[in-house]
Write a structure and sequence with these properties.
With about 350 residues, the protein is of the alpha+beta class. It is built from nine helices and nine strands. The strands form two sheets. Strands 1-2-4-3-5 form a five-stranded mixed sheet. Strands 6-7-9-8 form a four-stranded antiparallel sheet, covered by helices on one side. A hairpin with a 2-residue loop joins β6 and β7. α1 crosses α8, α2 packs parallel to α4 and α2 packs antiparallel against α6.
Length: about 350
């Protein structure tokens, strides 16, 4: 598959890296697509719902997984963001001032607003992320005095997103759970003082998969959220156009990551496609120019989304093929009934 002579384990690791990069780009691109093809109000609501749903699904289980459940609430909330985002490949810093006040800081570049996307994101859309997640930690922990104070945001031209969890001595109203105090700044954070995950519990392979899952989970949550927000048919369009564009722009990097030849025709694309599907944890079989995926790890353990979402999701792979060879196209069939979903693709030539 690769002309570098890499081992199977090396190739699998590279495929996981490529999948993480594609899905990372797609969540950013999806927000920009909503901004440009709908409006900022819809994008703001989408980001709020995305992060609130992520919070409700992941925060408490994540505290347990990271061994933070018995920490003071302000410390636990800040450490959760530090460790979970670090595992996802996000640059992040942490500082504990006291058991009731702990800082979390995301230096530039911001993961969610990758590259030049930062220049297009309105303040209200960025704040929707904080309302969706950071402002709700106290509610989820049944601590009505815990809130988040945001002191800087990169979308407003400030040197990073930063703020602190603060446990007040009184209950907070819903409007008080998120405050903005741009006149304050995080203290200097010495990198040598940052806490570290236990290396034995988090070996390299587990960290790579955590980084992949971090990006996949955003898309797993985002696609149904968008369908609920704007309706499945409009969501199909927004998902498809962003998927096509991200696939086309991500093709060259994905091929390079796996050590494949860009001019390798249908065979090269099929090698790429099969590797990327497997790297997501799917069961995949290939027969000639046909690839079949049984099961859908992206939505494992969840109700399957509307069929329009599956059609939109396939556009990511169609975009890869468009960049690989514009005279080839993917025939796609989704079978969402029965015990397990099944997807079939075949590479066709005009």
């Amino acid at each position: 598959m690769s002309d570098r002579g890499d081992s199977r384990a090396d190739l699998d690791s590279r495929a996981i890296e490529a999948v993480a990069a594609l899905y990372h780009a797609w969540i950013t691109g999806l927000v920009l697509t909503i901004l440009s093809r709908k409006d900022a109000r819809v994008a703001e609501e989408f980001v709020f719902r995305l992060f609130r749903r992520q919070h409700l699904e992941k925060f408490l289980p994540g505290l347990e997984k990271l061994g933070l459940r018995h920490e003071p609430h302000a410390v636990a909330a800040a450490k959760y963001h530090y460790f979970s985002n670090q595992l996802g490949g996000v640059r992040v810093e942490y500082l504990e001032e006291s058991s009731r006040k702990a800082w979390v800081r995301y230096p530039p570049p911001r993961w969610i607003w990758m590259g030049t996307a930062l220049c297009a994101v309105p303040s209200a859309v960025n704040r929707a992320m904080l309302r969706g997640w950071h402002a709700h930690n106290g509610v989820t922990l049944a601590n009505p005095g815990l809130g988040f104070v945001c002191t800087k945001t990169t979308v407003d031209g400030q040197p990073g997103l930063e703020g602190y969890y603060l446990e007040h001595d009184h209950d907070l109203s819903p409007d008080e759970r998120l405050e903005f105090r741009p006149h304050e700044s995080a203290p200097y954070i010495d990198p040598a003082t940052l806490p570290q995950l236990d290396a034995a519990s988090w070996p390299d392979e587990r960290r790579r998969k955590a980084s992949r899952n971090y990006a996949l989970d955003y898309i797993r949550t985002a696609l149904p959220v968008l369908s609920e927000l704007v309706g499945p048919e409009e969501a199909r369009y927004l998902i498809r156009i962003s998927g096509l564009q991200i696939g086309m722009h991500g093709h060259r990097d994905a091929m390079a990551t796996l050590g494949l030849d860009e001019g390798s025709g249908a065979e090269g694309f099929l090698a790429l496609f099969e590797s990327l599907l497997r790297a997501q944890g799917n069961r995949v079989e290939r027969d000639g120019n046909r690839i079949v995926q049984t099961g859908w790890r992206l939505f494992r353990g969840m109700p399957l989304p509307h069929p329009a979402v599956a059609d939109g999701w396939s556009a990511l792979w169609e975009g890869l093929l468009l960049a690989h060879d514009r005279f080839l196209w993917l025939d796609f069939q989704a079978h969402l009934g029965g015990d397990e979903p099944r997807f079939e693709w075949s590479v066709q030539r005009d």
